[in-house]
# Entry
Amino acid sequence: MVGLSAGEKHFIQGGIAQDLRTDGRKRLDFRPISVETGIIPQASGSARVRIGATDVIASVKAELGKPNASQPDKGKVSVHIDCSATAEPAFEGRGGEELSAELSVSLQRCLLGGKSGSGAGINLSSLIIVEGKVCWDLYIDGLVVSSDGNLLDALGAAIKSALSNTGIPKVQVAVGASGDEQPEVDVSDEEFLQFDTSSVPIIVTLTKIGRHYIVDATADEESLMSSAVSISINRRGQICGLTKRGGAGLDPSVILDMISVAKHVSEQLMSKLDSEIAAAEAMEEDS
# Structure
C-alpha cells in the first residue's frame, strides 16, 4: 500500500475536485501509452504495454485441444496473470497471489462474457476446427513488471495487442475419420491466419475519489478510492463485462453515468491503442 501523509491525501483530493491531478492531467485523461509487439518469439503472439510507470506483458499460446462436451462448437480460452514480486513490495508472498487471482478472474469475465458465452469479446466459435473433436485452446498469460496503478486496463490493452499479434496456424483435416474417431490434422508451419480482434474489448476503469471519478488512476490515487468500476467495451460500444472493487456502494444512477462516461472515453483509448499497435507491428516487420 502507498503510505501518504494527510497533507498529500488532501492535496490529491483537492486537485481532483478542481479537475487538475498531480501530474497535470484532467479527470478523464490517460497517461502516455506505448506498445511493443512480438517480444516473445516462442509465443503465438505477444505484447508489452506501458501506461505511465505501469508496465505489463501479455503472451498468447495456441495449442490443439478438444472442445468441452457441454460446448462442442466452441474452442477454449484461459487467462492467467502473474504479479512479479519485484514490481511492488506488496506483491511479495500472499499479496501477489491474491491480486494475480483477482486480475485473472476479472479479465476472464471481461473477455469471455457469461457462462453461456453471451457478451464474449473473444469469439470462441472461431477457434473450432472439427465440431466436438478438435479446437484451438488459447492460453493467455500476463505479467505485471512494474505497477503504478490501473493494472486491469493495462493488462486488457496488452492482451488485445498480443491477440492482434497472434497468428493461428492453418490446419488441414484428413478426410475419412468418422464416428468417435479422432480426425488426423496437419498443422502448417508456414501459413498462419491473423487472429480477429475486431470484437475484443478494451477495459476502462473509473475510480471514485470523493464525489468525482477519474480514469487511469495512479497508485497514489488508488489508495484514496472509495470504489472502482471496470467496464469492458468493444469497438461497437457494447458492454462485454463489468466488475467492481472497493467496499463503498454505488447508486444505480451513478453506475449508469459511469458506463456513459466509459463509453465516451473508450473511443479515444481504442483509437490510441489501434495506432500504437499498428506502429508496433510496422516496427516489428522492419526489424
Observations:
- The first strand starts at residue 33 and ends at 37.
- The longest helix spans residues 252-286.
